[in-house]
Amino acid sequence: MINKNQKSITIFLLFCLLGIIFQTKNDFGAVTVWDNFYLQFYGVSKSGFSLYTYMFFCIVYLGYPFIFQNHFFNLINGEIYYLLVRYKSLNSWFKKILLRTILNSFLIILILFVFTLVISVAMDLEMKNSVTLRENIKPSVLIYHFAINGFLQIINYILILFILVCVTKKIEYVLLSSGVLLILGLPILNIYTIFPVALNSLGYISNDSSTVFVKTFILVFYIFLELKVISYLLNKRIFIS
Predict the structure, then answer these.
(1) Of 70, 67, 53, 55, which is closest to residue 10 (Cα–Cα)?
(2) Can you tell me the mean pLDDT for 23-35?
(3) Predicted pLDDT of residue 47
(4) What is the pLDDT of residues 43-68, one digit of tens each?
(5) DSSP assignment of the chain, as one string?
(6) Residue 17: how many CB atoms within 10 A of its CB?
């Protein structure tokens, strides 16, 4: 997967990095590097959102899952019978690609973190250990929400799209479902944050930073359910018929 999709992943990352540069260059009131993190990945909050920042946020976190599901869709329409011969079970095959996916997702989060930090410093933002835009948010909590919940959010998207490809076997439905995920992330629909969509938005910790651990629990809970569903689908080989 890594070799076949290297070009797509590289283009995706370059787009994200250019977006970060563009947003940092525009003065949105950031004083410290942590202010910039907060603004870059604000996403949504219960009080609202900005369409531009939300769309960039969605592209960042849905980009790699979209590349993954496109690869899987091509796989089940070409190499799936080869995999049936090569692996003892589809579950063992899935565990292998899931490990690669976890590593790739973690690497993407790390790249975004490092690059945002570097650009913030390059743009002369202060290294002060505070979020001046939201003084109730500690940088440590912001980093946790960005890194841990951001990683878990990407994994959720990947598993959800994987299930949809298995069930529908049509790329059109998966593309439509990606749009549905964007809409479900809006605060007017996810007011109680029960859907595993856009929960890693830094905007959600604007008023109560303790909710980061609640978001972690929700994301982990959904990942557990999604893995159970995927195991069932793979055992039934539902996407081969």
Answers:
(1) 67
(2) 85
(3) 80
(4) 999 887 888 889 999 999 999 998 88
(5) -TTTTHHHHHHHHHHHHHHHHHHHHS-SS--BHHHHHHHHT--EETTEE-HHHHHHHHHHHHHHHHHHHHHHHHHHTTTHHHHHHHSS-HHHHHHHHHHHHHHHHHHHHHHHHHHHHHHHHHTT-B--SS-TTSTTS-HHHHHHIIIIIHHHHHHHHHHHHHHHHHHH--HHHHHHHHHHHHHHTSTTTSTT--SSSSTT-GGGGSS-GGGHHHHHHHHHHHHHHHHHHHHHHHHHTTTT-
(6) 15
* Residue 191 structure tokens: 């007011």
Looking at residue 138, its pLDDT comes to 94
Longest dimension (CA), the chain: 58
Query: 98: which 2 tokens?
Result: 């899931």
Domain ranges of the chain: 6-236
The token duo for 92 is 């063992």
Q: What is the mean pLDDT of the chain?
A: 88
Q: How far apart (Å, rounded) are the C-alpha atoms in residues 8 and 136?
A: 39
Tokens of 87: 């692996």
